[in-house]
Write a sequence for this structure.
């Protein structure tokens, strides 16, 4: 049994069937990649996990509870956090202040920026925020402006904010998109460190095969809305069905 289970999911947009009987099992404590050519349905599937889309039919459960019909913040409260292509951070605040905000949001819900100075003086918030920065190897940058960080360090900062929510499942939609190789490698190292230290389950959508093969223990290949292969990385590369999906109509 997986911690995230997708069964028989269908989703159409008008006449286009974006997801066609999708089945997927993400095992607890593993990194599971979802790959596939452009337009395969990857983002549509992810959006069904986070309350942005409701499938026409099928089920999506996390820890045996349905994720369907819930609002994004409710899904977050269940222990599901997500990371998108562009890190969601406050550029005009310091690294430390960004993490303070995430710690506060976990404890008290909504956050107002004008409350920052009073929150930042609370010892428990300071301790938690510092620990999160130690965990992502950024404590030496705590007083620098978030806007001055490299893309790799912005991703580290966002992960510190994410970890402050104590997630059980992390959903990542192309976390290295648009990054230079050094920042991509920085992000791969970070995700490996987090996985080793905390064993958080991760489902990652990714087109960069270097990232996929560096991280994933299991790979599902989507093509035209259907999972055509689910297997260990070593069995994916040479699989003719996968090659066919990527070559498409090229032959
Ligand atoms: N909101 C939408 N309305 C209409 N068509 C959509 C919508 N979202 C996605 N699609 C279509 O569904 C298919 C799958 O898209 P998407 O999930 O974004 O693919 P991927 O993320 O794998 O590139 C594509 O053909 C896309 O054009
Ligand atoms: Mg997409």
């Amino acid at each position: 049994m997986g911690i995230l289970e997708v069964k028989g999911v269908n989703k159409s947009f008008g006449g286009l069937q974006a997801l066609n009987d999708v089945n997927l099992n993400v095992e607890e404590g593993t990194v599971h990649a979802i790959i596939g050519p452009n337009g395969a349905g990857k983002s549509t599937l992810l959006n069904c996990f986070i309350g942005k889309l409701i499938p026409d039919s099928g089920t999506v459960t996390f820890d045996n509870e349905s994720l369907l019909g819930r609002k994004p913040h409710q899904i977050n409260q269940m222990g599901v956090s997500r990371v998108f292509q562009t890190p969601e951070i406050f550029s005009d605040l310091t690294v430390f202040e960004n993490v303070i905000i995430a710690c506060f949001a976990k404890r008290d819900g909504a956050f107002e920026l004008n409350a920052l100075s009073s929150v930042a003086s609370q010892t428990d918030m300071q301790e938690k925020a510092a620990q999160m920065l130690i965990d992502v190897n950024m404590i030496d940058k705590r007083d620098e402006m978030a806007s001055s960080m490299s893309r790799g360090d912005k991703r580290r900062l966002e992960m510190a904010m994410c970890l402050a929510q104590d997630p059980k499942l992390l959903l990542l939609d192309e976390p290295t998109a648009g990054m230079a190789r050094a920042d991509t490698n920085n992000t791969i190292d970070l995700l490996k460190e987090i996985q080793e230290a905390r064993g958080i389950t991760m489902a990652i959508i990714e087109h960069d095969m270097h990232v996929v093969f560096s991280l994933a223990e299991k790979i599902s290949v989507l093509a035209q809305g259907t999972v055509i292969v689910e297997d260990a990385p070593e069995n994916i590369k040479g699989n003719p069905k996968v090659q066919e999906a990527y070559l498409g109509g090229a032959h």
Observations:
- The domain at 14-79+167-251 is CATH 3.40.50.300 (Rossmann fold).
- The chain has a mean pLDDT of 90.
